[in-house]
Structures are given as structure tokens and as C-alpha cells.
Amino acid sequence: MQYRQLGRSGLKVSALTLGTMTFGGKGRFSFVGNTDQAGATRMVDIALEAGVNLLDTSNVYSTGTSEEIVGKAIKGKRDSVLLATKARFPMGPGPNDVGLSRHHLISACDASLKRLGVDHIDLYHVHEWDGLTPVDETMSALDSLVTAGKVRYIGVSNFTGWQLMKALGVADRAGSARFVSQQIHYTLEAREAEYELVPISLDQGLGVMVWSPLAGGLLSGQYRRGQAGPEGGRDFAAWQEPPIRDEARLYDIVDMLVTIGDEHNVSAAEVALAWLLHRPAVASVVIGANTEEQLRSNLKAVDLQLTDSDMDRLNAVSKLPLLYPYWHQALTASDRLGEVDLALLKQYLPKTNAF
Questions:
Q1: Total domains, the chain
Q2: Catalytic residue among 3, 61, 124, 251
Q3: Annotated catalytic, 61?
Q4: Domain range enclosing 331
Q5: Contact, 195 vs 345, CB < 8 A?
Q6: In this structure, are 300 and 340 located in the same domain?
Q7: How are beta strands 16-19 and 282-287 bridged, if at all?
Q8: Which of 41, 106, 123, 239 is most buried per CB count within 10 Å?
Q9: DSSP letters along 324-354, please?
Q10: Other CB atoms closer than 10 Å to residue 78's CB: what's the count?
């Protein structure tokens, strides 16, 4: 297993994190998975044996059941595992049972600690933007949790670039705890994070953690052009995470994953995960599984070394069109681009500058 620095923090995390959204299977999360306590404990043991040192959950997963299962699964192992959880989504019917207010964050943290059966959370992510709560209130509440020893580090998930920079600016001006990580959706199929979120991570010292790295199974190799998928085929028009806007492009990506996987004698899923581990700012990729076989296969991705040719082919088949002002910068500013700019623009630069 590889261990990587989580942003500018002193924390070392495994390149692969065990995601636990499949634990519990209650409510809408039953469509993701329904791993019970015995199965979850076995999954945790397999991951720890492979060197994984970070488990990722959220209070909203199966309305707290995932946290409860994780807490029981790590009994006697707390000193060898880091715990990450999240808060923001509704946890009750009341008007203050949701959001990033001081009221909700502190009560949500206390409830998560109780369900997990621990005295602190190693990494606490705000799970989504809350446009109704002042950012300074959110950052102050998070800082108080760190000061109280209930939380060691804080992170963010699913913010836009301007929202993230605003939160970091508020923390810096107040001299309070700042985010060390951001958990984002980032795959070969969905590379939008490269426009803003990945460069911000490099510039501001945030470690990227990737959620749903196989795009809900789309990049597993089970969905092929002209073939029924494992559930008899998917209606891509109704697929929401991520939305499929170009089905032909998706299948081109899957075809390339399968081709490179065959060349390395590994699965398409392992190639998709390994591509992420080769990308800038990525500290850890959050993997989940419904079976031990899937988990063991995904864990092998950390050992797959993709060649420059592999990366070039994957990038070529998946790169997105440049939005403004990026296309203008690529055309006219290539002589004054820094390392952070090049994280996005290098692959698009013309061989000679336009001016």
C-alpha cells in the first residue's frame, strides 16, 4: 500500500480508502448495497490487512446505520484506523436537522461520535454546500470542534471553486482551522473537477479524495457498447450520478479501459482506479464493494503502474473541451503559465504559442 500526505497536513493516508456507503442498506441506500454487520466487519478486515488505514462514512448513509456498523467493525482496532465522516444532509424532520449551521454541525458531530463509539473523528467533511448559512458561521463551528478535540482535521465535499475559496479565505482571515482535503467526484468519464477543483487543491494544499471513482459501476467494464449491463441495461438518460451527456464518449472510454486492462492482465476497474492514482493532487481514492471479490480486485489497483502511453491514450479519449477562459489562456498565455495552471492546460497547449 502507498501512503500519501493529505494536503498540507501532517496526516498520512492510504492511497485507497474503504468507503462504507454500502453498509446498512436502509432507505434509498438499499440501491447501493446492503452489507450487514458480519459482511462489513469482514470487508474492514480485508482492507486493513491490505494496508488501508482510512475508512470513510457519513451520517446520512442509511440514516446513521453505516456509522454504527463501522463503529462495531473497528472495535479493538481504533488505534490502527483513521475515521472520516460527514455532515450536512437531513438527519431528522426539523428545520434545524440539516445544513451547515453551528447548531446542526455540533449536534451532528456529537451524534456521529456516539454512533461510531469513539471520542474523536479524524477527518470531518462538510458534505455539501449550504447557501443559507454564512460561511464564517460554518468555519467557526468547525474550528470549535477541532479546538474541543472532537475532530482532528476538517475537509469539504461537493463545493464549487468559488465556494471553496471563500471558505478558505474566511478561515485564513480568522486564523481558524482550514480544510486539508476535499472529497470530489472525479473519473475518466467526469473530469470537470480539472477546471477548478484540482488546480485549487494544488494551489491551496488540499488532498483530493475521490468518491465513486468507478462512476457507480459505469467504468467497471460491465457496461459495453451494444450489450446489456449486469442489470439488463441502464437508462443513461435517467442516470444522475454522474449524468451521462455523451453515451458514445462513455463507451469509447470503457473500450480503452478494457484494452489497456487486457494488456496488463487486469480488470477495466483496476485501470480506472489506477488512472486516478496517477493524477495530480489525488491523495486517496475511496473504493467500495458489495462482495469480497470486488474489494480484493479494487485493492490491487494501487500496484498497477500505467505507462506514459497508457495515460496518453486514456487522456485522449476522455479529455473535455476547454471552457472560457481556459481556451483563451491556452491560446494566448502559454508563455506565462505556472505549475498549477498546467495541471489543466498542459494537455491542450498548441505546439507553438498563438502570439
A1: 2
A2: 61
A3: yes
A4: 321-355
A5: no
A6: no
A7: parallel
A8: 123
A9: TTHHHHHHH-GGG--HHHHHHHGGG--SS--
A10: 15
pLDDT digits (tens, 9 = 90+) for 272-312: 999 999 999 999 999 999 999 999 999 999 999 999 999 99
Inter-axis angle of helices 37-49 and 65-73, to 10 degrees? 50
Average of per-residue pLDDT across 22-34: 89
- Strand-pairing partners, residue 125, are 86, 155
Which long-range contacts link 33-42 to residues 24+ away (Cβ below 8 Å)? 33/288, 33/290, 35/69, 35/290, 36/69, 37/69, 37/72, 37/73, 40/69, 40/70, 40/73, 41/72, 41/73, 42/292
Q: Give Cβ neighbours of residue 97 (< 8 Å, ≥ 6 apart).
A: 90, 91, 104
| Cell numbers for 253 | 472510454
Amino acid identity, residue 198?
A: V
Kindly report whether the global pTM for this prediction surpasses the value 0.85. yes
The per-residue b/e assignment along 139-161, b for 16 or more CB within 10 angstroms, e otherwise, is: bbbbbbbbeeebbbbbbbbbbee
DSSP of 294-318, one letter per residue? HHHHHHGGGG----HHHHHHHHHHH
